[in-house]
Amino acid sequence: MAQRVQSVQEFLQDSFVPLVAALCSEEAERLTRKNNLGFCELVKPFCRLTSEVHMRDPNNQLHIIKNLKIAVNNIITQPPQPGAIRKLLNDVVTVSQPAEGLVANVITAGDYDLNISATTPWFEAYRESFLQSMPASDHEFLNHYVACMLVVSSSEPEPVEQFLKLSQEQHRIQHSNEYCYPKWFIPNTLKYYVLLHDVSAGEEQRADSIYEEMKQRYGTQGCYLLKINSRGSNRGADEQIPDPWSQYLQKSNIQIQESCEDGPYTVISNKNTDHFIPLDELGNDSKVDGLSNNFKTHPLQLDHTSDSGCFDGTDYLKSNASLHESKKLNTGIPHGMCLTLTDHDRIRQFIQEFTFRGLLPHIEKTIRQLNDQLISRKGLSRSLFSATKKWFSGGKVPEKSINELKSTSGLLYPLEAPELQIRKMADLCFLVQHYELAYSCYHTAKKDFLNDQAMLYAAGALEMAAVSAFLQPGAPRPYPAHYMDTAIQTYRDICKNMMLAERCVLLSAEILKSQSKYSEAAALLIRLTTEDSDLRSALLLEQAAHCFINMKSPMVRKFAFHMILAGHRYSKAGQKKHALRCYCQAMQVYKGKGWSLAEDHINFTIGRQSFTLRQLENAVSAFRHILINDSKQTASQQGAFLREYLYVYRNVSQLSSDEPLPQLPLPYINSSATRVFFGHDRRPAEGEKQAATHISLDQEYDSEYSQQWKELEEQVVAVANKSVALSNFQPTQYCLNKYSDNSRFPLGVVEEPITVEVAFRNPLKVPLLLTDLSLLWKFQPKDFSLNSNGETKELITCGKDVIGAEVISEFLINSEETKMARLKLFPHQTGELHILGVVYNLGTIQGTTVLDGMDSSVGLQAGKYIPNGTSVRGRQDLEIQGPRLNNTKEEKTSIKYGPDRRLDPIITEEMPLLEVFFINFPTGLLCGEIRKTYVEFMNVSKCPLTRLKVVSKRPECFTFGGSSTILTPLSPSTSEHCSAYKTVLKHSTSVCSLMSSASSVDFGAGIGNQTEVIDVPLPDSVLLPGASVQLPMWIRGPDEEGVHEIHFLFYYESIKKHSKMCHRVLRHTAVICTSRSLTVRATAYRSNALENEKGEGDNMLVFVDVENINTSEAGVKEFHIVQVSSNSKNWKLQESINLSEDKDIKLANREKGKLCLKAVRCKDLLGMHLTFWNNFSTIKYRFHFEGLKLSFLFSDNYTFADIIFGNEQIISSTSPCADFFFRSLSSEFKRPQTQHIMHTSQGTAQQSLDNAVRLIQKCSEVDLNIIVLWKAYVIEDNKQLILEGQHHVVLHTVGKEAFSFPQKQGFKKILGNSDWEDLEQESPEMVLFNFFRPESSSVPARPSPDHLSNLIKTSLHYPETYNHSFHQKSLCVVPVILLLSNCSQADVDVIIDLRHKTTSPETLEIHGSFTWLGQTQYKLQLKSLEVSSLQLKACFVHTGVYNLGTPRVFAKLSDQVTLFETSQQNSMPALIIINSI
Predict the structure, then answer these.
(1) Residue (of 1037, 1030, 1052) closest to 954 by Cα position
(2) What is the Cα–Cα distance from 473 to 490, expressed in whole angstroms?
(3) H-state helical runs in 452-595
(4) Which residues pair with 1159 in a beta bridge?
(5) What 3-state DSSP class applies to 974?
(6) Which one, of 589, 432, 489, lies nearest residue 116 by Cα?
(7) Average pLDDT for 1342-1347
(8) Which of 147-161, 594-608, 862-876 has the lowest mean pLDDT?
(9) Residue 383 — left, alpha, or beta (φ > 0 → left; ψ -120 to 50 → alpha)?
(10) What is the number of other CB atoms lying within 10 angstroms of the CB of residue 1428?
(11) Most confident region among 633-647, 1261-1275, 1407-1421 by mean pLDDT
């Protein structure tokens, strides 16, 4: 229970006080009405004595009475009716509400911090009114009048006669049979005569004389002269006099106003109809000098109301409003205007005199009389006493059985019955606070009543015995709670008197609470919650809830549960405010604890009650909570919640139509998932014309792709800015999402749409219908042109001429669905745009409940939704939280978030807008296949565009050709069956090569060029507004089998410079699926033969193996090798060796062809190399590139040689053949290579040795590139198609086999299983580059034999047969020329040792017995690439076959010390035949 204002002892004492009746003359009432008060109201604030009172008990012991209070009431001759009491109590509770701004108690229990009312004044007011309004009963005397005041004015003509009339009237009311109410304590009631004198108007002498006459007639202790109205009503208005009556009259005014509405009232004193009726005047009869009892049924009677329908309480609101108006009227009336503080003291003195001299002596006398009767009773025997009682109690009902007694509530005693006399004495003792004697009497009476089975009387005695035992000073005995329990059960179950049972509960609960027995008190309160009174049940349940929360270990959930029950009963009783308060207090416990269904019920009830009380904001908030939480309600229940919310919300919006649109709770918006797209939607494909994929909201975000596009754009921007990297480069962002960098303001373009994708989620199981959905924005116009200073204009929040907004008329979100809405804005001015949120009408559709368990989309077609008629207009803001900052120490130690500006774009000036269409773009190709297609560029803006470029990570897969290709026919149909290459007819049948030359600069692969960035050859380099142009583009299938994505990034600028946007880009991703075609491998060997003695015409043999690894799935019938071309700065293919008669090389499935080609050094480049090397000698050790790369970096001229096997020559030095070659070559150079880093800490000798080994290795390197061009015949749709393609092989090292890109499966056969397994263990990227990776750049300690064999090339020139006459001359001397060729690009010191290495018999057998004449060792120096000859003589002594290949050649670099022996393991045997003539 809540805290009390007074202690429990004070409460119990004030609940039972001596009652004094008042009977006033009409003139006396008129005097008091000057103060807007009746006589009883006048004295009420002074009815509590401020001093102690003494009296003698029957044993003549002095008894002290403290804080005694009496009650003075007008006589009412009709008991109050139950309906009137219910109405009174309902009104008392209604007007008693928590004070505004009252600080509530904060109770902490476990995880709960509850704000609970410290006091419950409505319950205390109810309890006080209930106890005061209880009608007097025959089984007890506590509510019987002990005395009666007769009040007459001194201004009466005959005051004494008036006293006589009033005395007779009182006697008639008490003793006449026509009045059964009120009840009187004893037949000889004390009459106290009061003469009321108006000081301001009356004659004081006359009043004194009349008072003297009264004292002589009634005695000094039976009368009193009360002087009032010392102040005139028209003077002293400015003097402030306390008003002690307001706190009492505020309660009684309720009944006064309702009484005036319900029927006419009369008062007993001379028909004074304008007199205020105090609280106790609840009934009277309609006779003369009586009060009518024409009470109507209380308008809040809940027998005919129900909460199951729509919002109720309209009638209640009207009556309640009138009640509050009446309260305001009456509380504004001043009281006691004619009374001074002296008059207040006089009234206080009057009450004390009446109590001291009249009332208490009368009560003391009565107690003595009753005590004497009790003593005399004890002196008789029980049997005799019982016989006497039976003899003289003729009005007693005959004895009945126990069951009958219980059913009839027991016996009815006459007033003179001894048992009632004991009870009467006990009640008198209780009223004057003699609790010990009262308990003794109650206990005695209780036994008698129980013996007689007078259950009503027994219950009353038990009740008061328990209270007396508790109030006894010093607490000699414990509180007998079982007495109260028995009394409550008897009242409720046997006597069927709920009013008396309720009084017991109220008294006992207070006592138990004072003893901290909250659990027992709560159980007691709950026992009396029945269906007959909702108000009583609500109040008792609320008090029980307070008991649970005030326990030593608070029972929080029980508190909340019983508050819910109390709120429900309050609602049924029409107490909407109290019901709302109970539910709100209970919500503190259930909120956020997972009790979703309980939360929904509480919020729903709070919403309804708030709406009934016109607290619309609270109602909206409560319904909002129901909808925004993850509800576990059924679909029908959620639909009901939603309809209630819409109904309430519509009423709120109607009352506040001028205010901004409020926030709506549904549907949920995932703000972080909001995406913003700048630009037009992508055009769909039209036939063979496919638009560039670019960016759209349909594409999922990929961080890896995003990084690739950023790198491409940064690369092309650097090229466009002349290879100057921009430090403040920011990539163009067309689509912003939660993964993109949103720290800067995005850029939009005038007249180009901005699409905002908002993620809506419907948490309910019923569909939501959004209508008139659009974006909410504000706009700040600004001029961003270069000649302006960013002039700012006033803020604009609406206007179609500034920002056009797309409106979606209907947007349906099905149950528990997440759906994206794409809303567009069309800016028409430059400035700063801020997208604030969305605005829409929220509603639902008819028949939502039938969607459960089935496809909710059935029957819900676009534009055909049937709304249920209730929708509200509102908004939701898009508030996006930026990323968590974690850079500085301060940011790491605190929680800070950066900005997210994706919804704050800057609208810039008009820019060109490019659209790209790909015509007949292939989706499937053979590896290496070349296909010609066309690209259409269209400028759809009003600004010309220029500097169109395209950048890609795969430039080797496409080309636009050279600058001359733009002059070719542009219509795709005109060249559909033409070759993709530039060809000429072959005029010669020779198999010798046809030569041409080209520079890599012409194909974008020159020194320092970014081969990934390609200029698109537009006519005049400008594309005018509305213009379009078609350009040819060749596509080459990637060399690796599989699915390939090729990213194209088109870059373009406006002719006019802009301050905000410098360029624009367009993205396209092409997907090409390649299948296996051919695999090519080649090997180069140096030829040992020198063409002439001077050594000119160095040559190599190139073996080319081509295998068809295509599968039959591709439909390829066969491949034809039509041409093999070489490309190099130093070498060229000269001719094909051993060509078969069938010059057409055909390869069917799984067939392999082998070609042997002769390659010679380009003579015109020899001098250039020599000059270059001499100039390069100072830095030759600084770089670690292969010979091919070194030549490529410092010379851009290449020699192309074509060996033709068909009827047409493909000019390999032109587009597209040369384009793909150069781009594949440059792509290879950009692949990561392992480089050796020389450490300066190494010794000088070691560095020199490593350099020597490096130069020796370079002698084995070549830079010859082979291009194999082929045609494939494909059968498709019963038609034969001819496909063209080319493969590239780069030869790096002499004697080492090189491959085209490997194509899985097909290479297993070529490489062998072991080699292939080694390849598969590497990463995919490494597998692709494995065949082109140069030798490890780490330098071995000594060169390998293969490298040494290529440092110095030797050749012996001699006659194969030599005839000599040994008979004439025994020695045969044969001249031999030894040719030495320096294959390195450095000076070499050579030593030729002619001595045989060994003299073993085996060696002699091989070499024969010959010897070299002359010097046995020669020393000479060979310049770079120099060829030198040495004249030798071989001496033979007999005929035979001899091997002359015995000279040993040692060589070292001129600046080195270490010699290396060159090996001639690969040389042919130098055999000579010596014949004798």
Answers:
(1) 1037
(2) 28
(3) 455-471, 481-489, 498-514, 518-527, 534-549, 556-572, 576-590
(4) 1100, 1133
(5) helix
(6) 589
(7) 64
(8) 862-876
(9) alpha
(10) 15
(11) 1261-1275
Q: What is the bridge-based pairing of β-strands 190-198 and 223-228?
A: parallel
Average per-residue pLDDT for the chain? 77
Alpha-carbon distance of 361 to 351, in angstroms, equals 14
pLDDT at 253 over 90: no
Spatial contact of 1052 and 912, defined as CB atoms under 8 Å apart: yes
How many angstroms separate the CA atoms of 867 and 852, rounded?
18
Residue 1166: the pLDDT is 43
Give CA–CA dist 546/540, Å, rounded: 10
- What 8-state DSSP symbol labels residue 659? S
Structure tokens at 17: 């006080």
Here the tokens at position 466 are 């328990």
User: Residue written as tokens 């209604």?
Assistant: 94
Supply the pLDDT for residue 512: 93
What do you get for the CA distance between the two ends of the chain, in Å? Answer: 149
- For residue 959, what are the CA distances in angstroms to 599, 999, 1002, 1012, 1076? 68, 16, 13, 11, 22
The residue behind tokens 């012996």 is 1356
Split at pLDDT 50, 70, 90, the class of 1317 is very low
pLDDT category at 798 given cuts 50, 70, 90 is: low
Q: Which residue has the higher pLDDT, 1362 or 1400?
A: 1362
Give the whole-angstrom CA distance, residue 1239 versus residue 1124: 44
Question: Strand ranges (DSSP E) for 94-208?
Answer: 105-109, 112-116, 145-153, 190-198
561, 583 contact by CB (below 8 A): no
Instruction: Say if CB 1079 and CB 1107 are below 8 A apart.
Output: yes
pLDDT at 385 over 60: no
Biggest CA-to-CA distance, the chain: 206
Contact 1188, 1292 (CB under 8 A): yes
Residue 38 near residue 228, CB atoms below 8 Å? no
pTM score over 0.85: no
Tokens 């140069």 sit on residue: 1334
Phi, psi of 1213 (to 5 degrees): -85, 5
* pLDDT score at 489: 93
d(C-alpha 283, C-alpha 1365), whole Å? 175
Helix spans in 278-432 (H): 314-331, 341-353, 360-379, 382-392, 402-407, 418-431
Q: What is the CA radius of gyration of the chain?
A: 60
State yes or no: pLDDT of 329 exceeds 70: no
Residue 51 and residue 421: Cα distance in Å, rounded? 31
Long-range contacts of 1041-1045 (CB under 8 A, 24+ apart): 1041/927, 1041/1074, 1041/1075, 1041/1076, 1041/1303, 1041/1304, 1042/1073, 1042/1074, 1043/1071, 1043/1072, 1043/1073, 1043/1074, 1044/954, 1044/957, 1044/1071, 1044/1072, 1044/1073, 1044/1074, 1045/1069, 1045/1070, 1045/1071
Contacts of 1190 (CB under 8 A, 6+ apart): 1183
The span from the CA of 741 to the CA of 1260, in Å, is 53
pLDDT tens digits along 1229-1244 = 555 444 443 444 445 5
Judged by DSSP in three states, 874 sits in strand
Q: If you average pLDDT over residues 962-978, what whole number do you get? A: 49
Q: What tokens does 853 get?
A: 């368990």
The pairing of beta strand 929-939 with beta strand 914-919 = antiparallel
828 vs 823: CA distance, rounded Å: 17
Region 115-140: mean pLDDT is 87
**φ, ψ of residue 1154 in degrees (nearest 5):** -125, 130
